[in-house]
Amino acid sequence: MKHSKYDALKLENQLCFPLYACSREIVKRYKPFLDEIGLTYTQYIVMMVMWERKSVNVKELGECLYLDSGTLTPLLKKLEFKGYVTRMRSDKDERNLVVAITDEGEKLKDKAVEIPFQIAGCTNLTPEEGVQLYGILYKILGTNP
Amino acid sequence: MKHSKYDALKLENQLCFPLYACSREIVKRYKPFLDEIGLTYTQYIVMMVMWERKSVNVKELGECLYLDSGTLTPLLKKLEFKGYVTRMRSDKDERNLVVAITDEGEKLKDKAVEIPFQIAGCTNLTPEEGVQLYGILYKILGTNP
DNA sequence: ATAAATTAAATTGAGTGCAATTTAATTATA
DNA sequence: TATAATTAAATTGCACTCAATTTAATTTAT
User: Mean pLDDT score of chain B, rounded to an integer?
Assistant: First the structure.
């Protein structure tokens, strides 16, 4: 096998590329299930936070999801329009926007609860591989660049 | 620890979420290096294919990168405008668009060759973890949903 | 040979992502 | 206490990403 100083530039020698491709691939596999409840993938993970926390401000949401207000502001307006959350400035500090789940949003949880089980079979990872992957990904996320 | 039937909907119990977050995080870490050569991450992986293959059609490129013409067509027009590739219909089959690297595109490779080494230190994974991650990601990509 | 089916790109439109800037509110400081 | 610095969202603008449709070329089936 011939070597060149350019080997490091080959797609097959990258870790970033399969990570990027895999991420998009998995989101694509969620789509048919998310379509049934009318959410995009990003809206779904926002709702996951809402189902757990009931009420958060945009900053906290951004910290949970690694997203900023440029992404979240229009997305939250859509979720508000669909009736799943409310958006109100905080009384204590009017810079903060409090996002709170509605009854409709709570109801959606009962439809969404099936999704993790429906999606479970869509990769062929062993439980050990799942655990490994989880650990490695969070190790990367924990690294300050 | 209390359990609920909604546990599977918690963000911390998802594999897809850290994958999605990690992918975006890594692309973000490439940005300062890619800025120096004036490419976006997606343009960079397209150029990686071009540096290896010299000439491909859009379909092949899409298969390599898991992207479709909706993403590739405008992106390739930008790379053509920058002078790194040419775009020409195939003589044999005019449905195919042949994308070929230019001399300018080849020159860019010498600037880009440093990037994999500059980026190498940006995660704290052990070599074993890198290999594990690589294997697991390609296992997922190889799964037909 | 011609019509029907298939294929490859391009186009369209909705929805992110994100860097950079702006606006408004709050806090820290001279 | 005015002013400066900081903070939280919103806004702006550019670049994807992808489903669905359209257009044009080629194959297949009649």
Answer: 94
**Which nucleotides of strand C are protein-proximal, with an atom < 7 A from a CB?**
7-13, 15-20, 24-27
* pLDDT of res. A145: 44
Q: Using an 8 Å Cβ cutoff, are B42 and B71 in contact?
A: yes
- B56 and B99 Cβ atoms separated by less than 8 Å: yes
What digits encode the pLDDT tens for the residues A104-137? 999 999 999 999 999 987 788 999 999 999 999 9
The protein residue nearest nucleotide C8, judged by CA to C1', is B95
With b for 16 or more beta-carbon neighbours within 10 A and e for fewer, the A23-40 pattern comes to bebbbebbeebbeeeebe
Residue B116's pLDDT is 95
The spacing between the Cα labelled CA in A70 and the C1' in D13, in angstroms, equals 11
B51-109 confidence digits (pLDDT tens): 999 999 999 999 999 999 999 999 999 999 999 999 999 999 999 999 999 999 999 99
Interface test with B, best of A64, A114, A123 (most B CBs within 10 A): A123
Which of A26, A34, A53 is the best mutation test for B, with the most CBs of B within 10 A? A26
d(Cα A101, Cα B96) in Å, to the nearest integer? 50
Residues B68, A24: contact at Cβ < 8 Å? no
Pairing verdict, β B85-89 and A55-57: unpaired
Please list, in sequence order, all residues whose beta carbon lies within 8 angstroms of the beta carbon of residue B38, skipping any fewer than 6 positions away. Answer: B82
**Quick check: A132 and B130 CB within 8 A?**
no
Distance CA A112, CA A109 (A): 5
